[in-house]
């Protein structure tokens, strides 16, 4: 539906140059979102796919085994959209104290994202509401160190920013002036908690994401916080018990369409086309995540059967295998700590996994060795090639 501009332009001055900044109208849109026909079917399909994803615990021996890697996958994908070139193995190595030589600069940003998401979810579990205070806290975690740490972590911007171009005067898009940020974000917070319009949670999350990206309230990290907001909204509403939906994969694979939809909403007010795109992303991503979980269960079961036939070292190897299912890159001291195995037992168990081609040693050294559960990491890393 073409509603025309979804906001108004406000003239301001930036370094002596006249700038047209875009201030979005309050949500929900007028006229109301059309949720009939094919869109209603798509919404139902997306909710069904999310329901299957949320029940993935029935497929997995322990869903928390996967949560560690899934959260990191979303962190990497979201950061890759912003230009980060890190891989999942880079991040896992970065988090190992035994691997101090792992690349640090860009991986630290991804690690910050993990910390931001974890903080946000922990706050929600203690009853803290989705709010501007929570969004600022998440932002502070995201930019706590590394690149962007000088861009007012946890504070709304006090100067004009822009997207594309070298200055607001030739930018592709200019968000609201700094003096309008508090009002715009206050309206967004009220919309998130407004039950009067009875919008489905997925639709509300889709609208809130675009509104946040349009306001662009921070000097840096807006894209990542905007994608985090989707996860927090779905978990807060009880649609997902755990953050197993990594929508950033869909946004990354459809990057041009994603940005085109954001522009189209602002210029044409066509929220329906964006919602269709968003719901399709939820459906395909959730379905893919369930399929990935099923493949991992099959992998673990197959490898367990191989290990059980491994003779005297099988018992230790099964415990080592369980530890590697939690984190697919580990050192022997780490394995000992996790499994309570003696160093010789852990070494023998790991040696069996290497002989069975389940695990591979990474360093080629005799000391401080690291081992990777290759096939597990390969499955998790699908779709995570840097842009």
Task: Please explain how this structure is put together.
This protein has 387 residues and is mostly helical. The chain folds into two domains: 7-291, Fic-like fold, CATH 1.10.3290; 309-380, Arc Repressor Mutant, subunit A. It has 15 helices and five strands. It has helices at residues 38-54, 64-81, 88-94, 105-125, 132-142, 181-192, 201-215, 222-236, 248-253, 255-268, 271-308, 314-326, 332-339, 343-355, 374-380, and strands at 7-14, 17-24, 329-331, 359-361, 370-373. The strands form two sheets. Strands 3-5-4 form a three-stranded antiparallel sheet. Strands 1-2 form a two-stranded antiparallel ribbon. Helix 1 packs parallel to helix 11 (271-308) and helix 11 packs antiparallel against helix 12. The radius of gyration is 23 Å and the shape is elongated. The two termini are 32 Å apart.
């Amino acid at each position: 539906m073409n509603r025309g501009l979804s906001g108004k332009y406000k003239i301001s001055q930036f370094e002596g140059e006249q700038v047209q900044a875009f201030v979005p109208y309050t949500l929900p849109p007028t006229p109301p979102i059309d949720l009939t026909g094919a869109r209603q079917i798509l919404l139902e399909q997306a909710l069904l796919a999310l329901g299957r994803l949320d029940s993935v615990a029935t497929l997995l021996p322990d869903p928390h085994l996967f949560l560690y890697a899934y959260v990191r996958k979303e962190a990497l994908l979201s950061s890759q959209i912003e230009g980060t070139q890190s891989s999942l193995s880079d991040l896992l190595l970065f988090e190992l104290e035994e691997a101090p030589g792992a690349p640090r600069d860009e991986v630290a940003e991804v690690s910050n994202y993990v910390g931001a998401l974890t903080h946000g979810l922990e706050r929600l579990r203690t009853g803290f509401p989705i709010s501007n205070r929570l969004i600022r806290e998440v932002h502070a975690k995201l930019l706590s160190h590394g690149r962007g740490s000088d861009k007012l972590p946890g504070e709304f911007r006090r100067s004009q920013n822009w997207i594309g171009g070298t200055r607001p005067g030739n930018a592709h898009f200019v968000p609201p002036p700094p003096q309008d940020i508090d009002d715009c974000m206050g309206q967004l917070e009220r919309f998130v908690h407004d039950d009067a319009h009875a919008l489905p949670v997925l639709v509300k999350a889709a609208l809130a994401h675009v509104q946040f990206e349009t306001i662009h309230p921070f000097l840096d990290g807006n894209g990542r916080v905007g994608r985090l907001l989707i996860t927090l909204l779905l978990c807060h509403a009880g649609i997902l018990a755990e953050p197993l939906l990594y929508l950033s994969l869909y946004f990354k694979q459809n990057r041009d369409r994603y940005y085109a939809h954001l522009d189209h909403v602002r210029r044409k007010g066509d929220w329906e086309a964006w919602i269709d795109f968003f719901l399709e992303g939820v459906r395909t991503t959730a379905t893919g995540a369930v399929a990935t979980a099923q493949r991992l269960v099959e992998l673990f079961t197959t490898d367990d059967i191989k290990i059980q036939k491994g003779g005297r070292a099988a018992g230790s190897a099964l415990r080592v295998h369980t530890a590697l299912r939690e984190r697919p890159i580990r050192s022997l001291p780490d394995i000992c700590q996790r499994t309570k195995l003696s160093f010789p037992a852990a070494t023998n168990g790991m040696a069996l996994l290497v002989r069975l081609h389940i695990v591979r040693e990474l360093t080629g050294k005799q000391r401080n060795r690291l081992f990777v559960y290759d096939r597990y990491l390969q499955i998790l890393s699908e779709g995570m090639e840097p842009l």
